[in-house]
Amino acid sequence: MGACDRLARAVPLPLRAGHWPDKPSRCRLAFTRRFLPANPRKRAPSCSPSCWLRDDLTGRKTIVRSARGHSSPAQAGGRSILMRKLVDFFLKLLPEREEVTIARAAARVPDGVRVYVIGDIHGRADLLAQAFAKIDANEAAHPFKRNVTVLLGDYVDRGLRSREVIDQLIERQMTRRVVTLRGNHDDSMLRALNDMDIALRWLAAGGRETLHAYGITVPANIDRDIVHTVMALAVKQIPAEHKSFLERLRLYVTIGDYAFVHAGIRPGIALENQSAVDLMSIRQPFLDCVLPHDFMIVHGHTPVTSPVFRSNRINVDTGAYITGNLTCLVLEEDRQFILEPRNETCQTVPGKIRCGTES
């Protein structure tokens, strides 16, 4: 079982270094509330200097991480009573199923660069037009040397205006710096044009609405013959420019300390070695992993009620096609904002959570 699996179901919160009775300037502590199956004297994951401690009263096993050097179980033994008291104190303050971890240093984008990040659109051309209008107004009100817009994928399916979404993106790329990433729905649409089995699954996952946007009606009850006829018509009806757009979509892009992907990454694997399937479709163990990645990951794919900020990732998929809320994240230097309606911005403290329900 991997380190991220052992630390599953985590909701990290930042813990400021305080004045502890035992050498306050030397340690920053992270307390993890979890029944862990590991041996309490087993070394913690090698990615950070840590050791396991056990609370004899609660039976909880706890990771203690030091900001300086490695603390072995033997070294920690002399402070075990103090540590147990501190662990018990903090655990009593936390609601069930929440954890506290060390907050990583704030991620940054290069100086002079502002990045706008838009989550899953799913055929909501109306919301995309509003988002572009807000971005234009924000750029005019707060000029920056270089503005880049990153769209995280899933432009088609479910909503009824997928064709207009792609038209807007193609037009926007002609005049602005726009990076378009590939989502699993975009990939399925492209592959469905040439694969009957994929076409069947795609139509059931929102492809009907996409074909409707291209003037193609799909019967309620379909079989392989009907699907073959429908997809043959789709090949003719979908403009070559739109097919070319889908083929050019990128799997990820990095800017400064951030990596932008559609769904997430598989923990422990370098970004350049990630599989396309994981980048477009992963949920677990990515969502539950609390260990730091090489980059701060900005992603969509998993709908949430409001943007989620974790110590190692940011989720901006707010279910636009059904909620009417298309989130636009703004990154400037080490600051993170949500571009709100009425062209206002709302600052979010780096590392602080804005709660959402991920499923």
Automatic annotation (TrEMBL):
Gene3D superfamilies: 3.60.21.10. It holds the Pfam family Metallophos. One of its GO terms (cellular component) is cytoplasm. One of its GO terms (molecular function) is phosphatase activity. Residues 114-305 form the Calcineurin-like phosphoesterase domain. GO terms for biological process: RNA decapping. SUPFAM superfamilies: Metallo-dependent phosphatases. InterPro entries: Ap4A_hydrolase (IPR050126), Calcineurin-like_PHP (IPR004843), Metallo-depent_PP-like (IPR029052). PANTHER family: METALLOPHOSPHOESTERASE (PTHR42850), ZINC-DEPENDENT ENDOPOLYPHOSPHATASE (PTHR42850:SF4). This is Calcineurin-like phosphoesterase domain-containing protein.
